[in-house]
Amino acid sequence: MVNTVFSGKMAPPNGIQSAVLWKLVLFAILMAVVPIGTYFSSLRFVFGGSTTPSAIAAIVAANMVLVGYVIVAFREEAHSPHPPIPLEKKSR
């Protein structure tokens, strides 16, 4: 009887790795730019120099970016062209 060892390394189909990496880079940039931009723009144009509401707006913006990333990740998993590869069952 031959026992195969699962190494934990599965080669994804071509294009999957780069798409995931680009989405991660995009959302990392958004997490840096959107809250800071929201804070300073709402500080100057919306709340007239009041820092507390501007900070709350920046927190809401950061959470919106995070929720967007989670939604994109779940939609990507749901529309995956290749089903996940099941692990081999151990034989006794």
Secondary structure: elements and pairs:
Elements: H1 16-46, H2 51-78
Helix pairs in contact: 1-2
Subcellular location: Endoplasmic reticulum membrane; Endoplasmic reticulum-Golgi intermediate compartment membrane; Cytoplasmic vesicle, COPII-coated vesicle membrane
Main location: endoplasmic reticulum
Function: Required for the assembly of the V0 complex of the vacuolar ATPase (V-ATPase) in the endoplasmic reticulum.
Overview of the molecule:
- The chain has 92 residues and is mostly helical.
- It has a domain of 62 residues.
- Helices cover 64% and strands 0% of the residues.
- The protein contains two helices and no strands.
- Helix 1 runs antiparallel to helix 2.
- The N and C termini lie close together (10 Å).
- The model has no long low-confidence stretch (mean pLDDT 82).
Largest sheet: none
* Rg on CA atoms, Å: 21 Å
Stretches where pLDDT is under 50 for at least 5 consecutive residues are none
Supply the helix-strand structural class.
mainly alpha
Helical run tally = 2
- State the end-to-end CA separation: 10 Å
What does the average pLDDT come to? 82
Strand fraction band? under 5%
Q: What is the ordering of alpha helices and beta strands?
A: HH
Morphology call: elongated
Task: Give a quick set of tags describing it.
single chain, 92 residues, mainly alpha, 2 helices, 64% helix, 0% strand, elongated, cytoplasmic vesicle, Vma21, transmembrane helix, endoplasmic reticulum, transmembrane
Describe, in short, the structure shown:
The protein has helices at residues 16-46, 51-78. The model has no long low-confidence stretch (mean pLDDT 82). It is an all-alpha fold and 92 residues long.
